[in-house]
Structures are given as structure tokens and as C-alpha cells.
Amino acid sequence: MKSMTPREEFEQAYGKVWDTDQLQSDFKVSSFMAPFVFVTRKSDGKKGSLKFSHRPRFYYNFSLTN
Predict the structure, then answer these.
(1) Which of 7, 14, 48, 54 could form a disulfide with 60 if both were Cys (CB 3.0 to 4.6 A apart)?
(2) Residue 1 lies in a domain
(3) Domain range holding 54?
(4) Is 38 within 8 Å of 49 (Cβ atoms)?
(5) 1-26: b or e for each residue (b if 16 or more CB lie within 10 Å)?
(6) Residue 37 in domain
């Protein structure tokens, strides 16, 4: 039986997951306040936040802010 990679584990738990390059491609980062990063989604200008892990560095659980 093949074990899951860390990314596959995060995707199973949280859905969409971004690495640093993907984050920079999809979002403009405003600020960090661990464990959150505050962003603007480039595709539509919506503001929101993501949680992040340190090792491995993944961003996940995008949530729109009001």
C-alpha cells in the first residue's frame, strides 16, 4: 500500500492546497499573522485569508473576508 505524500494528506484534509509558487501566482499577499496569511485573489480581486503550515510550507483553507 502506497503512503500519501504530505501534500496529499493536506489535500485530503483541507481540499485545495497551494505551495509558495502557486500562492504567488493566484494571490497578492497583504500580510502574515501566523498561522494566517491575508491575501487578495488575483482572478477576481476578492480579499480573504489562508492558513499555512511551516514544514512543509503549504497554504490552505481559503476563506473570504467581509
Answers:
(1) 14
(2) no
(3) 6-64
(4) yes
(5) eeeeeeeeebeeebeebbeeeebeee
(6) yes
The whole-model pTM stands at 0.89
Side-chain-side CA neighbours of 58 within 13 Å: the count stands at 15
Rg (CA), the chain: 12
Helix ranges (H only) for 15-59 are 20-26
Residue 20 dihedral angles phi and psi, to the nearest 5°: -60, -45
Distance CA 4, CA 34 (A): 26
Number of domains in the chain: 1
